[in-house]
Amino acid sequence: MWFAGGGIKGGQTYGETDDFSYNITKDPVHIHDVNATMLHLLGVNHEQLTYAYQGRDFRLTDIHGKVVQGMLA
Length: 73
What we know:
Layout: E1 16-17, E2 24-26, H1 31-41, E3 50-53, E4 56-59
Antiparallel strand pairs: 1-2, 3-4
């Protein structure tokens, strides 16, 4: 995924994969972590952002998301 501006360090590569780009070898980032990081950069607390579905409140990042500090400027 490509990020530009908005509090992301410029000119960096975060994480590594093997030669076939199939297996993660260093610094894995889950999609919930990406969502939490983007919401953090927008000034939204991902743990308080909920939506109602079938009478229950759900979080966009479920229970897993955490902000990836290594990507932030």
